[in-house]
# Entry
Amino acid sequence: MNTRDDDNDGLQLESVSESMYRMQDSQELAPARQRRPTLEAAPPRAPRIFCVVLLAAVIGMITWETGATLIQHNDSATTEDWKKAAEKVRAERKPTEPVLFAPHWADPLGRAAMGPSLKLDMLTLSDVDRYPRVWQLSIRGKRHPWLKGLAPARTFTEGQVRVDVFDKKPAEVLFDFTRSMLKAAKVERQGRDLKRCPRRGKRFRCDPRQGWNWAGPHMAEVGHRPYRCIFVHPVDRHVMRVKFPAVKVGRSIVGYTGIDDFENRKRAKLPVLLTVTVNRKAVGSVEHKNDWGWRRFTVDTSKHAGQTHEVSFEIAARGAFARTFCFSAEARK
# Structure
């Protein structure tokens, strides 16, 4: 009996132990079963949304580029469009009326279409202020910056080329320094001593040993465009002076400055100082920076308006190397 009881007790203990182990296993496995869905869950939504947005952006960019390319090709002016527009302009335009082109990169197309009817003087202007009528050939709705703020008096189109005619009040020019350079100017170089530069052909040469040391009419390249101007190369520790002894002065002197030649703008970086004087008294100045383009300046001469005076332009630089300076100027009423 005792043996059986002991055996029964052993069996009971074993069954109790197995029950406890099973309960313990079930408790340990329960959290695992609860965590399993979390481990098998889908990735976070944020990366998915980012991928969708990125894909949509790429598709949108491709669509926009394709559409822009198609529109650009369909909207392009043909050579025949330019020719027909130029023919109409030539039929009505006077030789003294400027023709501008827009955008700026369409210049070669427009000039080729206009042909020899556009003289060199009309292709090297600094502005169109003095002209009462100006023509513009343009594409893609562009406007030449010199005509900003003006409304065309008349417009017509040939294909994709638009022709605008602008009628405006012209600026009254009393004296054109650039065009009067050879017949009215004197050039001198001022250092410790004053040296007058004699004229040789179309240039005033200050030192025959230095071929670059001259002044005279010139056509400069500034910003890859041609401009008619007065060339004056500065000299170290000197002042180059271009003077006009008898000028009818108006209310202002309007001009432009630039450094000629792309290579020279790379070789040196120093600025050039231009000073305008009336009867040897400074009335204004501009220090032209190397990275400037063809830059406009205006000098107030209203207190001398209506009088005749000596007007001079003095050019100097801290370093003269590769400073191929050019300027143009007009006395305006």
Remarks:
- The two ends are 142 Å apart (CA to CA).
